[in-house]
């Protein structure tokens, strides 16, 4: 029996035939369990992201230090991402996901030790070194999270359900991006940093349990394993020889790289808007709130026609919203601009995920997902470093305006250099 037929007959899949609703997808035990794993891991990671940003800014009062957080995470991510993709394609995926969540648990406990004054946290103390060591470990751990999810996504859904499933998945992911930062900000303001880190540890442990108990049939291990670098090279050649996949990934990478205003939120809140840590949670959650609303719409109305043009317009809208945020001096207007940027980004996430799932052969999903992670996931951390550096050189507000303008330039360049992406219709990939 073929792999596609095996998945179609699997008890995790809804019955075949005709369009399927989002509620029917959520009654699929394998898909629902996979979403729970993703949400729990996202909550843990986002609570830590909010808390550690506030923690470091309290110690340094330097926007450049916020950029260093991103750089500290992205370097180990780059070093391990391709090897993580190879591992996902050749080893049990659920076990890899469990170990990744346990890695998140370890880093949150390290950070809780610093926040509770177990270690000195002065500018040159052991505690500060521990903070950045924990961030670096997070970079290694995160290299596994997305490839595990993306490879299992294709095991619990049929191809014709990928677009709607991507919309539902986006809602869950963005819900984590809403709840995680908001919960992190509230915990820091009311319970302190140690409480926030310990709550993140609980979510990480729950994520490990969710993934190891997931109901899904994994593919048998390959009879022969290709050499590691040869196998990684196959994944790289696939991505770089596919104009649609490469164009979608590059578009998102450079737009997020230059539009990384979220990394500077502690500085904006403290120096421009003059609010406290509870405002950090609200503004960190605002883009995800917009993405949730857009994801709910796209889950009911999955995009098909003119997908390439829609993707380009969405990223252009993201750049304009970032410029609007930089010019705002009112808290709620800033939140609105970030929410609208999240709506635009929500369109991009669903379209990019669907393109990647429909275009990738099952046997190399781990490797292609890890390459996608280098393009997409690492761009957030590189964007944080770029934003911190630009803020240091140009000033806080001008650096964010510059980033939004660069995002618009990236859209124009992609439209010209990737005509297949510009003309893309998702029905051509199904």
Explain what this protein looks like in three dimensions:
By secondary structure, this protein is an all-alpha fold. 80% of the residues lie in helices and 0% in strands. It is built from 18 helices and no strands. It has helices at 3-9, 22-26, 29-60, 63-90, 93-115, 126-156, 162-190, 193-212, 228-240, 243-258, 265-273, 277-300, 307-327, 331-359, 365-375, 377-394, 396-417, 419-422. Helix 4 (63-90) runs antiparallel to helix 16 and helix 13 packs antiparallel against helix 14 (331-359). The longest helix is centred in the first third of the chain and has 32 residues, at 29-60. It is globular, with a radius of gyration of 21 Å.
């Amino acid at each position: 029996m073929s792999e596609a037929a095996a998945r179609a007959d699997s008890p995790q899949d809804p019955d075949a035939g005709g369009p399927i609703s989002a509620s029917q997808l959520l009654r699929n035990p394998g898909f629902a369990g996979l979403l729970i794993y993703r949400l729990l891991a996202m909550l843990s990671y986002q609570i830590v992201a909010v808390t550690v940003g506030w923690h470091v800014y309290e110690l340094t009062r330097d926007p450049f230090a916020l950029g260093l957080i991103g750089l500290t995470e992205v370097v180990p991510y780059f070093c391990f991402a391709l090897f993580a993709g190879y591992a996902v394609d050749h080893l049990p995926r659920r076990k890899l996901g469990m170990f990744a969540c346990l890695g998140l648990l370890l880093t949150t406990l390290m950070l809780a030790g610093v926040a509770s004054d177990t270690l000195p946290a002065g500018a040159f103390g052991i505690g500060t070194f521990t903070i950045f060591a924990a961030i670096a470990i997070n970079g290694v751990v995160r290299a596994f999270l997305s490839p595990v999810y993306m490879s299992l996504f294709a095991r619990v859904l049929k191809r014709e359900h990928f677009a709607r499933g991507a919309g539902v998945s986006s809602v869950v992911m963005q819900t984590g991006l809403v709840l995680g930062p908001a919960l992190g900000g509230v915990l820091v303001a009311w319970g302190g940093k140690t409480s926030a880190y310990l709550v993140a540890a609980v979510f990480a442990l729950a994520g490990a349990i969710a993934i190891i108990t997931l109901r899904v049939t994994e593919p048998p291990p390959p009879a022969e394993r290709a050499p590691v670098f040869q196998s990684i090279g196959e994944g790289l050649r696939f991505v770089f020889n596919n104009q649609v996949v490469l164009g979608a990934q590059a578009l998102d990478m450079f737009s997020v790289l230059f539009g990384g205003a979220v990394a500077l939120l502690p500085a904006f809140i403290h120096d421009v808007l003059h609010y406290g840590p509870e405002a950090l949670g609200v503004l960190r959650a605002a883009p995800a709130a917009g993405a949730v609303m857009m994801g709910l719409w796209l889950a009911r109305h999955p995009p098909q026609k003119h997908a390439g043009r829609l993707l380009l317009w969405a990223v252009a809208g993201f750049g304009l919203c970032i410029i609007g945020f930089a010019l705002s001096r009112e808290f709620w207007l800033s939140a609105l601009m970030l929410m609208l940027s999240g709506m635009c980004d929500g369109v991009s996430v669903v379209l990019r995920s669907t393109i990647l799932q429909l275009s990738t052969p099952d046997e190399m999903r781990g490797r292609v997902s890890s390459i996608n992670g280098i393009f997409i996931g690492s761009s957030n951390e590189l964007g944080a470093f770029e934003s911190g550096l630009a803020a240091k050189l140009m000033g806080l507000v001008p650096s964010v305006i510059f980033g939004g303008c660069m995002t618009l330039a990236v859209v124009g360049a992609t439209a010209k250099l990737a005509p297949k992406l510009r003309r893309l219709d998702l029905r051509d990939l199904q």
